[in-house]
Amino acid sequence: MPRPPRSRIRRAQPPLTRTTTFTDDGLTLIVKESVSVSGRPFVLVHGIGVASRYYGPLATALLTRGPVFVVELPGMGAAPEPRDPLPMARYGSLIARWLEASGITDAVLVGHSMGAQVVVEAALQHPAAVGHAVLIGTVTDVAEQTLPRQMLRLAQDTLRERPDVNWIVATDYLRCGPRWMLKQAPVMVAYPMLERAAGLRMPVLALRGEHDPICSEAWNRRLAETIPDSAHHTLKRQAHVGMYVDAATPAALIVQFAGIAIGVDETVEAGSDGGVVLEGRAGAR
């Protein structure tokens, strides 16, 4: 008999060993980390309204290759809510200042959905700390840059996600609250992703799920083509939160792209397609 969503979610969480907070000019960032494994650090940044839980399987897979830091941004998860909505540049500067204060260098920054925007800003503001950037399910497609259209795409995505994914997203949204979501969503939708991403000078990997209605294949390719050193890949059979359902495949792609190793250990809640090939521009790594 299938386990209920909450049981599956608990089993999918990684052995993160410490939780810290970082405060900068009134904003608090929560960081859950495991540094028991040496190697390149991975920093995982979540999307709007959610928190660290949906990164559980991916964090577990990446822990076999290096230390992992999973953040919770202000206003989401357990992080205190700011008074006003934050521009992505401010979220990015918070990550950048935490990286600098923590002495983290050559990091692999991974952002999902709105988190991809935050990763772009952090990488632009503190490029010395970022070796590679990974953008998963990036928003917002310039062809659909309105809040009603994005709400429709989100509703479509719920029909394609697994029940435990929908449980995580729904309960995290409730915890975040509609007030903050409605404040922050217009900022996310209006963010000029192509313009900002074009300034990145480190290698960037753009990932999306095959059945993701929020980040289309055309949009993901256009994003990759905008970035000087980039590659892109589509995760088969996955929707917007595909890195939760099949963590081994994106983890293997990430460590391959970053030149760390080929493949990762299989983990609970993660299967592997194997034989994945990155597509990119001629100069992409």
Automatic annotation (TrEMBL):
<keyword id="KW-0378">Hydrolase</keyword>
<dbReference type="InterPro" id="IPR000073">
    <property type="entry name" value="AB_hydrolase_1"/>
</dbReference>
<dbReference type="GO" id="GO:0016787">
    <property type="term" value="F:hydrolase activity"/>
</dbReference>
<dbReference type="InterPro" id="IPR029058">
    <property type="entry name" value="AB_hydrolase_fold"/>
</dbReference>
<dbReference type="Pfam" id="PF12697">
    <property type="entry name" value="Abhydrolase_6"/>
</dbReference>
<dbReference type="InterPro" id="IPR050266">
    <property type="entry name" value="AB_hydrolase_sf"/>
</dbReference>
<protein>
    <submittedName>
        <fullName>Alpha/beta hydrolase</fullName>
    </submittedName>
</protein>
<feature type="domain" description="AB hydrolase-1">
    <location>
        <begin position="42"/>
        <end position="232"/>
    </location>
</feature>
